[in-house]
Amino acid sequence: MTGGTGFFGRWLVESLLHADERLGLGTSVALLSREPESFARRAPHLARSASVTLVRGDVRTFAAPPGRFTHLVHGATDTTGPLNAERPIELIETIVEGTRNTLEVSARASVERVLLLSSGAVYGRQPADLTQVPESYSGGPDPLDPLQAYAEGKRVAELLGAAYARDRGLEVVTARAFAFVGPYLPLDAHFAVGNFMRDALGGDTIRVAGDGTPYRSYLHAADLAVWLWTLLARGRSGRAYNVGSDEAVSIRELADAVARAAARTIGRNPLVSIAQKADPSVPPARYVPSTRRARDELGLRAHIPLDEALRRTFAWLAERAETVEQVPA
Protein backbone atom coordinates (compact mmCIF):
# COMPACT_ATOMS: atom_id res chain seq x y z
CA MET A 1 0.00 0.00 0.00
CA THR A 2 1.37 3.38 -1.00
CA GLY A 3 -0.09 6.33 0.83
CA GLY A 4 -0.88 4.03 3.73
CA THR A 5 0.06 6.63 6.33
CA GLY A 6 -2.43 9.33 5.21
CA PHE A 7 -6.15 9.81 5.84
CA PHE A 8 -7.31 7.15 3.38
CA GLY A 9 -4.48 4.81 4.26
CA ARG A 10 -5.05 4.97 7.99
CA TRP A 11 -8.68 3.96 7.56
CA LEU A 12 -7.80 1.16 5.17
CA VAL A 13 -5.15 -0.27 7.49
CA GLU A 14 -7.25 0.12 10.64
CA SER A 15 -10.23 -1.58 9.00
CA LEU A 16 -8.09 -4.34 7.50
CA LEU A 17 -6.53 -5.20 10.85
CA HIS A 18 -9.95 -5.12 12.51
CA ALA A 19 -11.35 -7.53 9.90
CA ASP A 20 -8.26 -9.71 10.17
CA GLU A 21 -8.70 -9.98 13.94
CA ARG A 22 -12.44 -10.65 13.78
CA LEU A 23 -12.42 -13.04 10.82
CA GLY A 24 -8.98 -14.65 11.01
CA LEU A 25 -8.03 -13.66 7.46
CA GLY A 26 -4.30 -14.19 7.89
CA THR A 27 -3.70 -10.95 6.00
CA SER A 28 -0.57 -8.84 6.08
CA VAL A 29 0.16 -5.42 4.60
CA ALA A 30 3.36 -3.61 3.65
CA LEU A 31 3.10 0.18 3.97
CA LEU A 32 5.41 2.38 1.93
CA SER A 33 6.53 5.48 3.83
CA ARG A 34 9.24 8.08 3.37
CA GLU A 35 9.51 8.39 7.16
CA PRO A 36 8.53 5.13 8.90
CA GLU A 37 9.75 6.43 12.27
CA SER A 38 7.36 9.38 12.11
CA PHE A 39 4.44 7.10 11.28
CA ALA A 40 5.40 4.74 14.12
CA ARG A 41 5.26 7.65 16.59
CA ARG A 42 1.83 8.74 15.33
CA ALA A 43 0.35 5.25 15.12
CA PRO A 44 2.35 2.93 17.42
CA HIS A 45 -0.42 0.32 17.55
CA LEU A 46 -0.15 -0.11 13.77
CA ALA A 47 3.64 -0.08 13.69
CA ARG A 48 3.75 -2.78 16.38
CA SER A 49 1.24 -5.03 14.64
CA ALA A 50 2.65 -8.33 13.41
CA SER A 51 0.50 -7.91 10.29
CA VAL A 52 2.09 -4.58 9.28
CA THR A 53 5.50 -4.09 7.70
CA LEU A 54 6.76 -0.52 7.25
CA VAL A 55 8.83 -0.10 4.10
CA ARG A 56 11.01 2.96 3.68
CA GLY A 57 10.98 4.47 0.21
CA ASP A 58 9.84 7.10 -2.24
CA VAL A 59 6.83 6.22 -4.39
CA ARG A 60 8.77 7.28 -7.51
CA THR A 61 11.67 4.90 -6.97
CA PHE A 62 10.77 2.11 -4.52
CA ALA A 63 11.24 -1.56 -5.35
CA ALA A 64 8.96 -4.38 -4.28
CA PRO A 65 9.82 -5.69 -0.79
CA PRO A 66 10.46 -9.42 -0.37
CA GLY A 67 7.46 -11.72 -0.41
CA ARG A 68 4.38 -12.34 -2.52
CA PHE A 69 1.69 -9.70 -2.83
CA THR A 70 -1.74 -10.38 -4.27
CA HIS A 71 -3.17 -6.84 -4.17
CA LEU A 72 -1.85 -3.30 -4.25
CA VAL A 73 -3.51 -0.03 -3.22
CA HIS A 74 -1.90 3.07 -4.70
CA GLY A 75 -2.86 6.22 -2.83
CA ALA A 76 0.39 8.14 -2.37
CA THR A 77 -0.29 11.78 -3.33
CA ASP A 78 0.01 15.07 -1.50
CA THR A 79 -3.56 16.41 -1.39
CA THR A 80 -3.17 19.17 1.21
CA GLY A 81 -2.96 22.07 -1.25
CA PRO A 82 0.34 23.98 -0.90
CA LEU A 83 2.29 21.72 -3.25
CA ASN A 84 -0.34 22.18 -5.96
CA ALA A 85 -0.16 25.97 -5.67
CA GLU A 86 3.56 26.44 -5.01
CA ARG A 87 5.36 23.57 -6.78
CA PRO A 88 3.09 22.18 -9.52
CA ILE A 89 5.96 20.58 -11.47
CA GLU A 90 7.02 18.59 -8.42
CA LEU A 91 3.44 17.51 -7.77
CA ILE A 92 2.90 16.33 -11.35
CA GLU A 93 6.18 14.41 -11.26
CA THR A 94 5.27 12.75 -7.97
CA ILE A 95 1.83 11.67 -9.19
CA VAL A 96 2.87 10.51 -12.66
CA GLU A 97 6.25 8.93 -11.87
CA GLY A 98 4.90 7.49 -8.64
CA THR A 99 2.01 5.84 -10.46
CA ARG A 100 4.21 4.55 -13.27
CA ASN A 101 6.70 3.05 -10.80
CA THR A 102 3.94 1.55 -8.67
CA LEU A 103 2.30 -0.09 -11.69
CA GLU A 104 5.65 -1.36 -12.94
CA VAL A 105 6.44 -2.86 -9.54
CA SER A 106 2.98 -4.47 -9.53
CA ALA A 107 3.43 -5.97 -12.99
CA ARG A 108 6.86 -7.39 -12.20
CA ALA A 109 5.67 -8.80 -8.88
CA SER A 110 2.65 -10.49 -10.52
CA VAL A 111 0.19 -8.57 -8.34
CA GLU A 112 -3.33 -9.75 -9.16
CA ARG A 113 -5.32 -6.53 -8.66
CA VAL A 114 -4.52 -2.84 -8.23
CA LEU A 115 -6.76 -0.14 -6.74
CA LEU A 116 -5.76 3.25 -8.11
CA LEU A 117 -6.95 6.12 -5.93
CA SER A 118 -7.83 9.04 -8.17
CA SER A 119 -10.04 12.08 -7.63
CA GLY A 120 -13.21 13.77 -8.77
CA ALA A 121 -10.89 16.63 -9.76
CA VAL A 122 -10.31 14.82 -13.07
CA TYR A 123 -13.72 16.09 -14.27
CA GLY A 124 -12.66 19.73 -14.06
CA ARG A 125 -15.31 22.34 -13.23
CA GLN A 126 -18.70 20.70 -12.82
CA PRO A 127 -21.39 22.48 -14.86
CA ALA A 128 -23.87 24.32 -12.65
CA ASP A 129 -26.81 22.52 -14.28
CA LEU A 130 -25.27 19.07 -13.71
CA THR A 131 -26.38 18.22 -10.19
CA GLN A 132 -24.33 15.01 -9.97
CA VAL A 133 -21.33 14.27 -12.18
CA PRO A 134 -21.26 10.69 -13.57
CA GLU A 135 -18.18 8.71 -14.56
CA SER A 136 -19.17 9.16 -18.22
CA TYR A 137 -18.81 12.96 -18.05
CA SER A 138 -16.10 13.97 -20.53
CA GLY A 139 -15.14 17.38 -19.14
CA GLY A 140 -11.71 18.16 -17.78
CA PRO A 141 -9.57 20.78 -16.05
CA ASP A 142 -7.89 23.64 -17.90
CA PRO A 143 -4.48 22.29 -19.04
CA LEU A 144 -3.05 25.84 -19.17
CA ASP A 145 -3.79 26.53 -15.49
CA PRO A 146 -0.86 25.52 -13.22
CA LEU A 147 -3.32 25.28 -10.32
CA GLN A 148 -4.74 22.21 -12.08
CA ALA A 149 -1.51 20.25 -11.59
CA TYR A 150 -3.15 17.81 -9.17
CA ALA A 151 -6.14 17.21 -11.44
CA GLU A 152 -4.05 16.77 -14.59
CA GLY A 153 -1.63 14.50 -12.77
CA LYS A 154 -4.50 12.27 -11.72
CA ARG A 155 -5.79 12.15 -15.30
CA VAL A 156 -2.40 10.90 -16.50
CA ALA A 157 -2.29 8.42 -13.60
CA GLU A 158 -5.63 6.97 -14.73
CA LEU A 159 -4.33 6.72 -18.30
CA LEU A 160 -1.25 4.87 -17.07
CA GLY A 161 -3.50 2.45 -15.21
CA ALA A 162 -5.49 1.78 -18.37
CA ALA A 163 -2.30 1.27 -20.39
CA TYR A 164 -0.82 -1.19 -17.87
CA ALA A 165 -4.11 -3.06 -17.75
CA ARG A 166 -4.10 -3.46 -21.52
CA ASP A 167 -0.41 -4.02 -22.19
CA ARG A 168 0.81 -5.76 -19.01
CA GLY A 169 -2.26 -7.70 -17.96
CA LEU A 170 -2.81 -5.95 -14.62
CA GLU A 171 -6.32 -5.73 -13.24
CA VAL A 172 -6.65 -2.03 -12.39
CA VAL A 173 -9.74 -0.50 -10.75
CA THR A 174 -9.93 3.29 -10.35
CA ALA A 175 -11.62 5.10 -7.46
CA ARG A 176 -12.48 8.76 -8.11
CA ALA A 177 -12.71 10.17 -4.60
CA PHE A 178 -14.71 13.27 -3.66
CA ALA A 179 -15.07 14.76 -0.12
CA PHE A 180 -15.04 12.97 3.23
CA VAL A 181 -15.26 13.46 6.98
CA GLY A 182 -14.07 11.38 9.89
CA PRO A 183 -11.19 10.74 12.29
CA TYR A 184 -7.71 11.49 10.92
CA LEU A 185 -8.98 14.14 8.47
CA PRO A 186 -6.58 17.12 8.74
CA LEU A 187 -8.10 20.14 10.45
CA ASP A 188 -5.51 22.59 9.13
CA ALA A 189 -5.54 21.84 5.39
CA HIS A 190 -7.86 23.02 2.60
CA PHE A 191 -10.77 20.76 3.58
CA ALA A 192 -13.75 22.94 4.52
CA VAL A 193 -15.31 20.46 6.94
CA GLY A 194 -12.00 20.03 8.78
CA ASN A 195 -11.49 23.79 9.01
CA PHE A 196 -15.02 24.29 10.35
CA MET A 197 -14.53 21.61 13.00
CA ARG A 198 -11.23 23.23 14.00
CA ASP A 199 -13.02 26.58 14.36
CA ALA A 200 -15.73 25.00 16.50
CA LEU A 201 -13.19 23.29 18.75
CA GLY A 202 -11.02 26.34 19.24
CA GLY A 203 -13.34 29.35 19.24
CA ASP A 204 -16.78 30.87 19.12
CA THR A 205 -17.12 31.35 15.37
CA ILE A 206 -17.04 29.08 12.31
CA ARG A 207 -15.67 31.18 9.46
CA VAL A 208 -16.71 30.66 5.85
CA ALA A 209 -14.16 32.41 3.63
CA GLY A 210 -16.43 32.62 0.57
CA ASP A 211 -20.15 33.21 0.14
CA GLY A 212 -21.25 29.76 1.34
CA THR A 213 -23.08 28.83 -1.88
CA PRO A 214 -20.86 26.08 -3.41
CA TYR A 215 -22.23 22.56 -3.10
CA ARG A 216 -20.24 19.60 -1.82
CA SER A 217 -21.12 16.19 -0.38
CA TYR A 218 -19.48 14.22 2.42
CA LEU A 219 -19.02 10.49 2.98
CA HIS A 220 -17.93 9.23 6.39
CA ALA A 221 -14.54 7.55 6.40
CA ALA A 222 -15.99 4.24 7.64
CA ASP A 223 -18.17 4.12 4.53
CA LEU A 224 -15.14 5.18 2.49
CA ALA A 225 -13.17 2.17 3.72
CA VAL A 226 -16.03 -0.19 2.84
CA TRP A 227 -16.27 1.29 -0.64
CA LEU A 228 -12.54 1.08 -1.34
CA TRP A 229 -12.19 -2.51 -0.15
CA THR A 230 -15.22 -3.44 -2.27
CA LEU A 231 -13.67 -1.80 -5.35
CA LEU A 232 -10.40 -3.64 -4.79
CA ALA A 233 -12.20 -6.96 -4.40
CA ARG A 234 -15.05 -6.71 -6.90
CA GLY A 235 -14.69 -3.59 -9.03
CA ARG A 236 -14.43 -4.12 -12.76
CA SER A 237 -10.91 -3.82 -14.13
CA GLY A 238 -10.47 -0.91 -16.51
CA ARG A 239 -13.41 0.92 -14.95
CA ALA A 240 -13.63 4.04 -12.78
CA TYR A 241 -16.08 4.45 -9.90
CA ASN A 242 -17.05 7.66 -8.13
CA VAL A 243 -16.54 7.35 -4.38
CA GLY A 244 -18.44 9.74 -2.13
CA SER A 245 -21.91 10.83 -1.10
CA ASP A 246 -24.43 12.01 -3.67
CA GLU A 247 -26.32 14.13 -1.11
CA ALA A 248 -25.47 17.76 -1.93
CA VAL A 249 -25.03 20.30 0.86
CA SER A 250 -24.01 23.93 0.48
CA ILE A 251 -20.95 25.19 2.35
CA ARG A 252 -23.25 27.40 4.41
CA GLU A 253 -25.43 24.40 5.27
CA LEU A 254 -22.28 22.44 6.14
CA ALA A 255 -21.11 25.16 8.53
CA ASP A 256 -24.54 25.18 10.19
CA ALA A 257 -24.45 21.39 10.50
CA VAL A 258 -20.99 21.53 12.11
CA ALA A 259 -22.27 24.15 14.57
CA ARG A 260 -25.23 21.93 15.52
CA ALA A 261 -23.01 18.89 15.95
CA ALA A 262 -20.58 20.87 18.11
CA ALA A 263 -23.45 21.98 20.36
CA ARG A 264 -24.78 18.43 20.77
CA THR A 265 -21.44 16.65 21.11
CA ILE A 266 -18.89 18.91 22.78
CA GLY A 267 -21.08 21.56 24.36
CA ARG A 268 -19.98 24.47 22.19
CA ASN A 269 -22.35 26.84 20.38
CA PRO A 270 -20.33 28.56 17.67
CA LEU A 271 -21.76 31.21 15.39
CA VAL A 272 -21.34 30.99 11.61
CA SER A 273 -19.68 33.92 9.84
CA ILE A 274 -19.96 34.29 6.04
CA ALA A 275 -17.20 36.52 4.62
CA GLN A 276 -18.75 37.33 1.24
CA LYS A 277 -22.21 38.15 -0.02
CA ALA A 278 -23.63 35.79 -2.62
CA ASP A 279 -24.24 37.10 -6.12
CA PRO A 280 -27.65 35.79 -7.23
CA SER A 281 -26.63 36.08 -10.89
CA VAL A 282 -23.79 33.55 -10.42
CA PRO A 283 -24.87 29.90 -10.19
CA PRO A 284 -23.31 28.03 -7.26
CA ALA A 285 -20.29 25.85 -7.97
CA ARG A 286 -20.82 22.12 -7.51
CA TYR A 287 -18.57 19.16 -6.65
CA VAL A 288 -21.03 16.32 -6.16
CA PRO A 289 -20.77 12.85 -7.69
CA SER A 290 -23.31 10.49 -9.11
CA THR A 291 -22.80 7.18 -7.30
CA ARG A 292 -25.23 5.18 -9.41
CA ARG A 293 -22.49 3.00 -10.92
CA ALA A 294 -21.15 1.94 -7.51
CA ARG A 295 -24.69 1.40 -6.25
CA ASP A 296 -25.98 -0.59 -9.23
CA GLU A 297 -22.87 -2.68 -9.95
CA LEU A 298 -21.53 -3.25 -6.43
CA GLY A 299 -24.46 -2.56 -4.09
CA LEU A 300 -22.62 0.28 -2.34
CA ARG A 301 -24.36 3.08 -0.46
CA ALA A 302 -23.70 5.58 2.31
CA HIS A 303 -24.71 4.14 5.69
CA ILE A 304 -23.80 7.12 7.90
CA PRO A 305 -25.68 10.41 7.31
CA LEU A 306 -23.81 13.70 7.55
CA ASP A 307 -25.12 14.77 10.98
CA GLU A 308 -24.08 11.44 12.47
CA ALA A 309 -20.73 11.58 10.69
CA LEU A 310 -20.04 14.99 12.24
CA ARG A 311 -21.15 13.81 15.68
CA ARG A 312 -18.87 10.78 15.55
CA THR A 313 -15.92 12.87 14.41
CA PHE A 314 -16.40 15.47 17.16
CA ALA A 315 -16.67 12.70 19.75
CA TRP A 316 -13.42 11.16 18.52
CA LEU A 317 -11.65 14.52 18.52
CA ALA A 318 -12.83 15.24 22.04
CA GLU A 319 -11.64 11.85 23.26
CA ARG A 320 -8.33 12.30 21.49
CA ALA A 321 -7.78 15.62 23.23
CA GLU A 322 -8.05 13.86 26.58
CA THR A 323 -6.22 10.60 25.86
CA VAL A 324 -3.59 9.15 23.58
CA GLU A 325 -4.56 8.51 19.96
CA GLN A 326 -6.82 5.50 19.61
CA VAL A 327 -8.42 3.44 16.88
CA PRO A 328 -11.62 5.16 15.64
CA ALA A 329 -14.92 3.49 16.58
What report would you give on this structure?
This protein is of the alpha/beta class. 42% of the residues lie in helices and 15% in strands. It has 11 helices and 12 strands. It has helices at residues 7-23, 36-42, 44-47, 82-86, 88-108, 149-168, 192-202, 221-234, 251-265, 292-298, 306-322, and strands spanning 29-33, 52-56, 71-74, 113-119, 171-177, 180-181, 205-208, 215-216, 219-220, 240-243, 249-250, 271-274. It has a 4-stranded parallel beta sheet, with helices on both faces. A two-stranded parallel ribbon has the order 1-2. Helix 7 (192-202) runs parallel beside helix 9 and helix 9 (251-265) crosses helix 11 (306-322). The protein is globular and about 55 Å long.
